[in-house]
Amino acid sequence: MADNKPVLSISIVTPDGRVYEHQGDFLVVTTAIGPLGILPKHVPVIATLKVDEVRVKYGEEQDRIAVNGGFMEFSNDTATIVADSAERQSEIDVKRAESARQRAQETIKQAKASHDTDSLARAEVALRRAINRINVANH
User: What is the reported pTM?
Assistant: First the structure.
Protein backbone atom coordinates (compact mmCIF):
# COMPACT_ATOMS: atom_id res chain seq x y z
CA MET A 1 0.00 0.00 0.00
CA ALA A 2 3.05 2.23 -0.26
CA ASP A 3 2.21 3.01 -3.90
CA ASN A 4 -0.32 5.71 -2.85
CA LYS A 5 -3.33 3.89 -4.24
CA PRO A 6 -6.57 4.43 -2.31
CA VAL A 7 -7.09 2.22 0.72
CA LEU A 8 -9.87 1.49 3.14
CA SER A 9 -9.61 2.14 6.87
CA ILE A 10 -11.47 -0.61 8.73
CA SER A 11 -12.37 -0.59 12.40
CA ILE A 12 -14.40 -3.15 14.34
CA VAL A 13 -15.66 -2.20 17.79
CA THR A 14 -17.76 -4.05 20.37
CA PRO A 15 -19.13 -3.01 23.76
CA ASP A 16 -15.80 -4.27 25.16
CA GLY A 17 -13.72 -1.99 22.94
CA ARG A 18 -11.84 -2.02 19.65
CA VAL A 19 -11.27 -5.54 18.31
CA TYR A 20 -9.71 -4.73 14.95
CA GLU A 21 -8.19 -1.77 13.14
CA HIS A 22 -6.35 -2.02 9.85
CA GLN A 23 -6.11 -0.64 6.35
CA GLY A 24 -7.05 -2.79 3.39
CA ASP A 25 -7.76 -2.95 -0.31
CA PHE A 26 -11.06 -4.83 -0.09
CA LEU A 27 -13.66 -5.50 2.61
CA VAL A 28 -16.30 -8.26 2.51
CA VAL A 29 -19.22 -8.35 4.97
CA THR A 30 -22.50 -10.24 5.05
CA THR A 31 -25.46 -7.92 5.38
CA ALA A 32 -29.07 -8.76 6.13
CA ILE A 33 -29.72 -8.87 2.37
CA GLY A 34 -26.54 -10.70 1.31
CA PRO A 35 -22.79 -10.35 0.86
CA LEU A 36 -21.31 -6.93 0.21
CA GLY A 37 -17.84 -6.22 -1.15
CA ILE A 38 -16.38 -2.77 -0.67
CA LEU A 39 -13.47 -1.24 -2.58
CA PRO A 40 -12.01 2.25 -2.11
CA LYS A 41 -14.31 5.03 -3.36
CA HIS A 42 -17.44 2.91 -2.76
CA VAL A 43 -20.62 4.91 -2.26
CA PRO A 44 -21.58 5.52 1.39
CA VAL A 45 -23.61 2.72 2.95
CA ILE A 46 -25.11 1.73 6.29
CA ALA A 47 -26.02 -1.94 6.64
CA THR A 48 -27.16 -4.42 9.27
CA LEU A 49 -24.75 -7.34 9.55
CA LYS A 50 -25.55 -11.01 9.95
CA VAL A 51 -23.60 -13.42 12.10
CA ASP A 52 -20.75 -14.23 9.71
CA GLU A 53 -17.12 -13.55 8.97
CA VAL A 54 -15.70 -10.22 7.89
CA ARG A 55 -12.77 -10.43 5.50
CA VAL A 56 -10.22 -7.68 5.04
CA LYS A 57 -7.82 -8.09 2.13
CA TYR A 58 -4.61 -6.09 1.88
CA GLY A 59 -2.07 -7.00 -0.77
CA GLU A 60 -1.71 -10.77 -0.77
CA GLU A 61 -2.79 -11.04 2.88
CA GLN A 62 -6.26 -11.45 4.34
CA ASP A 63 -7.65 -11.09 7.87
CA ARG A 64 -10.79 -12.92 8.97
CA ILE A 65 -12.89 -11.77 11.91
CA ALA A 66 -15.91 -13.61 13.33
CA VAL A 67 -18.59 -10.93 13.77
CA ASN A 68 -21.77 -11.73 15.65
CA GLY A 69 -24.31 -9.25 14.40
CA GLY A 70 -24.27 -5.48 14.45
CA PHE A 71 -24.04 -2.89 11.71
CA MET A 72 -21.54 -1.24 9.38
CA GLU A 73 -21.24 2.36 8.31
CA PHE A 74 -19.04 3.19 5.33
CA SER A 75 -18.14 6.60 3.92
CA ASN A 76 -15.02 8.41 2.75
CA ASP A 77 -13.08 5.12 2.51
CA THR A 78 -13.66 4.42 6.21
CA ALA A 79 -15.64 1.41 7.40
CA THR A 80 -16.76 1.22 11.01
CA ILE A 81 -18.33 -2.01 12.17
CA VAL A 82 -20.16 -1.96 15.48
CA ALA A 83 -20.73 -5.57 16.50
CA ASP A 84 -22.35 -7.33 19.42
CA SER A 85 -19.12 -9.34 19.68
CA ALA A 86 -16.20 -10.09 17.39
CA GLU A 87 -13.05 -12.21 17.46
CA ARG A 88 -10.03 -12.20 15.21
CA GLN A 89 -9.26 -15.56 13.62
CA SER A 90 -6.06 -16.00 15.66
CA GLU A 91 -7.87 -15.36 18.95
CA ILE A 92 -10.69 -17.89 18.60
CA ASP A 93 -10.61 -20.73 21.12
CA VAL A 94 -11.87 -23.59 18.94
CA LYS A 95 -12.45 -25.94 21.88
CA ARG A 96 -14.61 -23.35 23.58
CA ALA A 97 -16.51 -22.74 20.34
CA GLU A 98 -17.07 -26.48 19.89
CA SER A 99 -18.40 -26.71 23.46
CA ALA A 100 -20.74 -23.79 22.78
CA ARG A 101 -21.95 -25.51 19.61
CA GLN A 102 -22.68 -28.75 21.51
CA ARG A 103 -24.50 -26.86 24.30
CA ALA A 104 -26.60 -24.98 21.76
CA GLN A 105 -27.50 -28.18 19.91
CA GLU A 106 -28.57 -29.84 23.16
CA THR A 107 -30.62 -26.79 24.17
CA ILE A 108 -32.31 -26.82 20.74
CA LYS A 109 -33.31 -30.46 21.23
CA GLN A 110 -34.70 -29.75 24.71
CA ALA A 111 -36.50 -26.59 23.58
CA LYS A 112 -38.14 -28.42 20.67
CA ALA A 113 -39.23 -31.26 22.95
CA SER A 114 -40.78 -28.85 25.46
CA HIS A 115 -42.10 -26.41 22.78
CA ASP A 116 -40.14 -23.56 24.43
CA THR A 117 -39.92 -21.06 21.56
CA ASP A 118 -37.93 -18.45 23.53
CA SER A 119 -35.21 -20.93 24.49
CA LEU A 120 -35.23 -22.30 20.97
CA ALA A 121 -34.66 -18.88 19.43
CA ARG A 122 -31.79 -18.06 21.82
CA ALA A 123 -30.17 -21.47 21.24
CA GLU A 124 -30.38 -21.07 17.47
CA VAL A 125 -28.56 -17.73 17.69
CA ALA A 126 -25.93 -19.30 19.98
CA LEU A 127 -25.50 -22.13 17.48
CA ARG A 128 -25.01 -19.70 14.55
CA ARG A 129 -22.41 -17.78 16.57
CA ALA A 130 -20.51 -20.94 17.56
CA ILE A 131 -20.50 -22.25 13.99
CA ASN A 132 -19.32 -18.87 12.71
CA ARG A 133 -16.41 -18.86 15.17
CA ILE A 134 -15.47 -22.44 14.22
CA ASN A 135 -15.61 -21.66 10.49
CA VAL A 136 -13.48 -18.53 10.83
CA ALA A 137 -10.93 -20.31 13.02
CA ASN A 138 -10.59 -23.20 10.54
CA HIS A 139 -9.86 -21.09 7.44
Answer: 0.87
